[in-house]
C-alpha cells in the first residue's frame, strides 16, 4: 500500500513555489513515513503547512500518514485538501485513492471515489467492474446471507488469495481478483477470468 500512496506524495517538485529547504524537509518527512515514524512525520508536516500556508502539498503527507494509521476518513479529507474535486486532472489520483480504499475493504469510500474519477474522466465504462464489485460488497455487508464456501477446482482456485468473485448473468463467465507476487516480491492485484465450457471451467 505504501508504494501506491507514495504516487500521491511525489508530485513533481518544480510545480510548486517552495524553497529548497522546504523541498528537503518534505523528502525527509517521506523518509519518516517509510520508517513508520508517523507521529514525528505528522508533526513535521503540520509545521511545513504553518510556515507556508500557500503550499498545499504537505496535505498529501498527512493523507498518507492517516492511511498508515487506518484513519481513512481523515486520509480522504487531507487528500482533497490538495486535489480539486472539480478538476479533470484529478481523475487519475482520485482513481488511485479509490483503488486503495477498495483493496483495504472500505467499499463505500471506494465507490464514491470511483464515481468521482469516472465523472471527471468521462470514461464510466472503465470503472464499471470496480463499481459493480463495490456495490456487491456493500450489499453483502448490509444484507448478509448464510452460504457454504465451495472450492471451484484447480482451474480457478489456487494457493494464493482470491476474492470478490463475479459470475455473469448467463453463468458462463467467472471473474475474480487474485493477489500475486511481482518480480520484486511485492503483492499486486490482478483480475482473472474463467469460462464455463460445457460444465467445466477453463484455466484462469
Describe this structure as you would to a colleague.
The structure is a single chain. This protein is α+β, with helices and mostly antiparallel strands and 204 residues long. It has 3 domains: 1-82; 97-147, no CATH class; 162-201. The chain has helices spanning 2-9, 20-34, 38-51, 58-68, 72-82, 91-103, 107-121, 128-142, and strands at residues 162-167, 173-181, 187-197, 200-201. The protein has a 4-stranded antiparallel β-sheet, with no helix packed on it. Strand 1 and strand 2 form a beta hairpin. Helix 1 runs antiparallel to helix 6 (91-103), helix 2 packs parallel to helix 4 (58-68) and helix 4 runs antiparallel to helix 5. It starts with a helix and ends with a strand.
Topology at a glance:
Elements: H1 2-9, H2 20-34, H3 38-51, H4 58-68, H5 72-82, H6 91-103, H7 107-121, H8 128-142, E1 162-167, E2 173-181, E3 187-197, E4 200-201
Antiparallel strand pairs: 1-2, 2-3, 3-4
Helix pairs in contact: 1-4, 1-6, 2-3, 2-4, 3-4, 4-5, 6-7, 7-8
**Tally of individual domains:** 3
Question: What amount of the residues lies in strands?
Answer: 5-15%
Mean pLDDT: 82
Low-pLDDT stretches: 1-5, 12-16
- Summed up, the helix count is 8
Largest pleated sheet: 4 strands, antiparallel
Strand order of the largest sheet: 1-2-3-4
Pairing-aware structural class of the strands and helices? alpha+beta
Briefly summarize what is shown.
The chain is α+β, with helices and mostly antiparallel strands and 204 residues long. Helix content is 50%, strand content 14%. The protein contains eight helices and four strands.
